[in-house]
């Protein structure tokens, strides 16, 4: 539909703009350095001033968006000739008067706007519109008054007027984000879906940083368009005599009729769940008030009973199955269900009931919500502390309920509001339960164990929670106990749990505290044992944990050296794998820095240090820096520098020492290695001189002396 327009006001506005352009051109001509242009402008000015009615054009400022210029408002007779200075003086005097009037009107308009805002906040939208309109009578080009009035019109569902005000706001400011937003809302309410999307796209063009708002608006428009189309299709099918539609109506009438026993209603709900199994059925169920089923006293009594009889359990399960069928993939139905009185609170009660069957179907219903963004938002409006306790309690179950509960927690853990709740309950509820879960890994449903650990790992993104968790000796010991194995240690579920626990440990090792130092030796021992695991993912993560825990304890370094860590790391480096290699070279750099034994073993297993030379050519700066550090430590051994004669070591180290890597450790470690190389074996110096590297060597000596 075409947007509403005030044609008279629009024409008046355009005429005014043309006159402003004319006056601007005259002023430019009067100030021109070209005498011919200036004389022509003076003549044109005299002609305009002498035109009949030229001085009788006084109009109120509210007639246009911008005040008109009145050259001579008094209408008195003019001399035959008007010079440029006189014209400009009159123009300046008139401009000052108009500016003063505008300031006064702007003050009045602002006061009226504030009165309108106050009325809007109090919910008196009609009064708000009146005040905004009075403000516009004072100042017609005030954009805020148009958008504020449009917002009030939206509240009163006067959508066409809201659109018109948004158009006028855009005449005042073509980049008015609020105008596009409100216009889109108005078009959406009128079911003008194309126009609504166009408004939202304009909004994003004006401010690309509003992408989240744009996505939310587009999502709302799509849902509304889908809802309208579903209802239209359902109506067409109903008019055509669709059997399913008739069945839904009949069954709802049967369930809503009073005076029957519980088995009667259970049977009707079961039949209804069988026909509410597609988009049309879901829409008909909603439009025929199917979600008001709890209005039936018998159904509500069974649903809300604390100690349910077998018959009440059966009805409750049937009702949950019906809601699953009605809400599967239908976000509008999900919203309507949780908007029903008692439903949200009662779902939590069902989770704490004594019926495993009710537990399973309640968890299945909640899962429908947790799988989509809008559904999660609806869930997060409930009592989160209660839901968190209930869901986490299911983790200890030995059946499918544990997996369902953990999957729901995994879906919710990314939501900020849920994380806030976890933070508040962390020490008292979250941590003890997860610790117990890890300790009892052998008795827990394996499918739930890995998601549970992953949820705990997600919480580590919060720095405060990660610090608390890293200080918990109980948590570390539980992780180690799980890594020790259990009766199902060879199962895929258990291996997935080991992988998740190693990831959790890597996150915790971003912290540094006394607990980690105390447990560094057993942590290193468990990880060293996992380096021969058949699952390459577990090997990589175990290597990563080693690379982070070894700096915490020299004793841990000595233990892994006894276990042959140098030989294992060289094997990983030769086999390739970028992530594993980056961990392996970091481990070697840690070991060689603190232990001469590690230096000797590395030289024994890689006599010409060929592995380190290859790593110096890697594209990853962290790997290069650790390789240079490791090489510089090995060069302290007799004969190590001589073993590198004839290699490209000087060229490689020189390139990195004098390079522009982002990590300064690359230049520093390479410079130290280069200095130690030439000090230990002077026969490398001619090659250095040939490459014009003496200046770099001299500058590197401060690093060598400092090291």
Return residue spans where pLDDT drops below 50 for at least 5 consecutive residues: 1-5, 53-82, 238-245
Radius of gyration based on Cα positions:
39 Å
Quaternary state of this entry equals single chain
Which percent band covers the strand fraction?
Answer: under 5%
Going by helix content, strand content and strand pairing, the class is mainly alpha
Quick one: biggest sheet?
A: none
Give the tally of β-strands.
Answer: 0
Q: Report the average pLDDT across residues.
A: 81
Shape: flat
Number of helical runs?
Answer: 37
CA-CA gap between termini: 78 Å
> What share of the residues lie within helices?
over 70%
Briefly summarize what is shown:
The chain has 707 residues and is an all-alpha fold. It contains 37 helices and no strands. It is flat and about 105 Å long.
Notable characteristics:
707 residues; mainly alpha; Serine Threonine Protein Phosphatase 5, Tetratricopeptide repeat; 37 helices; flat; TPR-like_helical_dom_sf; TPR repeat; TTC12 protein; repeat; ARM-type_fold
Question: Would you kindly provide a written description of the structure presented here, covering whatever features stand out?
Answer:
The termini are far apart. 73% of the residues lie in helices and 0% in strands. The chain is flat. Among the domains are: 35 residues; 119 residues, Serine Threonine Protein Phosphatase 5, Tetratricopeptide repeat; 129 residues; 72 residues, no CATH class. The chain has 707 residues and is mostly helical. The N terminus is likely disordered. Keywords: Repeat, TPR repeat.
């Amino acid at each position: 539909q075409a947007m509403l327009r005030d044609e008279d006001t629009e024409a008046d506005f355009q005429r005014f703009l043309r006159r402003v352009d004319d006056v601007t051109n005259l002023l430019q001509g009067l100030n021109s350095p070209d005498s011919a242009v200036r004389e022509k402008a003076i003549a044109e000015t005299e002609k305009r001033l002498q035109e009949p009615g030229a001085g009788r054009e006084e109009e109120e400022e509210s007639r246009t968006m911008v005040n008109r210029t009145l050259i001579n408002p008094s209408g008195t007779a003019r001399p035959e000739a008007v010079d440029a200075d006189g014209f400009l003086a009159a123009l300046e005097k008139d401009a000052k008067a108009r500016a003063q009037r505008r300031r006064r009107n702007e003050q009045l308009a602002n006061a009226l706007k504030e009165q309108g805002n106050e009325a809007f906040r109090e919910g008196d939208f009609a009064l708000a519109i009146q005040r905004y309109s009075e403000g516009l009578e004072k100042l017609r080009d005030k954009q805020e008054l148009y958008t504020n009035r449009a917002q009030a019109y939206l509240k009163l569902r006067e959508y066409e007027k809201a659109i018109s005000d948004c158009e006028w706001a855009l005449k005042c400011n073509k980049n008015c984000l609020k105008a596009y937003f409100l216009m889109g809302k108005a078009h959406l309410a009128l079911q003008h879906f194309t126009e609504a999307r166009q408004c939202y796209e304009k909004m994003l063009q004006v401010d690309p940083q509003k992408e989240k708002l744009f996505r939310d608006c587009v999502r709302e428009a799509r849902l509304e368009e889908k809802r309208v189309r579903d209802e239209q299709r359902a109506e067409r099918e109903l008019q055509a005599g669709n059997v399913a539609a008739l069945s839904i109506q009949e069954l709802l009438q049967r369930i809503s009729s009073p005076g029957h026993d519980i088995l009667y209603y259970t049977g009707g709900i079961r039949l209804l769940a069988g026909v509410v199994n597609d988009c049309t059925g879901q829409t008909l169920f909603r439009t025929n008030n199917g979600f008001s089923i709890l209005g039936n006293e018998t159904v509500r009594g069974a649903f809300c009973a604390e100690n349910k009889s077998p018959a009440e359990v059966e009805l409750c399960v049937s009702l949950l199955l019906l809601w699953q069928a009605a809400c599967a993939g239908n976000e509008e139905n999900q919203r309507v269900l949780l908007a029903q009185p008692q439903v949200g609170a009662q779902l939590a009660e069902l989770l704490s009931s004594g019926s495993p069957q009710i537990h399973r179907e309640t968890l299945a219903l909640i899962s429908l919500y947790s799988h989509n963004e809008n559904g999660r938002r609806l869930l997060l409006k409930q009592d989160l502390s209660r839901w968190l306790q209930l869901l986490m309690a299911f983790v200890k179950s030995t059946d499918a309920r544990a997996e369902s509960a953990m999957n729901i927690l995994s879906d919710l853990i990314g939501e900020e509001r849920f994380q806030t709740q976890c933070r508040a309950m962390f020490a008292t509820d979250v941590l003890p339960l997860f610790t117990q879960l890890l300790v009892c890994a052998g008795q827990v449903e394996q499918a739930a164990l890995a998601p549970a650990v992953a949820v705990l790992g997600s919480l580590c993104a919060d720095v405060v929670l990660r610090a608390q968790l890293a200080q918990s000796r109980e948590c570390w010991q539980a992780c180690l106990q799980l890594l020790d194995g259990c009766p199902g240690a060879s199962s895929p579920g258990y291996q997935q749990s080991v992988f998740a626990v190693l990831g959790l440990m890597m996150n915790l090792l971003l912290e540094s505290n006394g607990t980690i130092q105390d447990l560094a030796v057993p942590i290193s021992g468990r990880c060293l044992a996992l380096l021969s695991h058949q699952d390459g993912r577990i090997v990589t993560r175990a290597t990563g944990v080693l690379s982070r825990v070894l700096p915490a304890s020299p004793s841990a370094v000595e233990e892994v050296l006894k276990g042959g860590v140098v030989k294992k790391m060289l094997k990983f480096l030769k086999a390739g794998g970028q992530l594993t290699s980056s961990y392996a070279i970091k481990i070697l750099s840690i070991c060689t820095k603190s232990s001469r034994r590690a230096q000797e073993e590395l030289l024994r297993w890689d006599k010409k240090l060929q592995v380190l030379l290859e790593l110096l050519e890697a594209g990853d700066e962290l790997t290069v820096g650790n390789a240079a550090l490791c090489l510089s430590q090995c060069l302290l051994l007799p004969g190590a520098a001589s073993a590198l004669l004839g290699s490209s070591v000087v060229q490689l180290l020189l390139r990195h020492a004098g390079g522009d890597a982002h990590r300064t450790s690359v230049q520093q470690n390479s410079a130290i290695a280069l200095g130690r190389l030439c000090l230990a074996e002077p026969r490398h110096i001619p090659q250095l001189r040939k490459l014009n590297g003496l200046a770099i060597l001299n500058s590197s000596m401060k690093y060598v002396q400092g090291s």
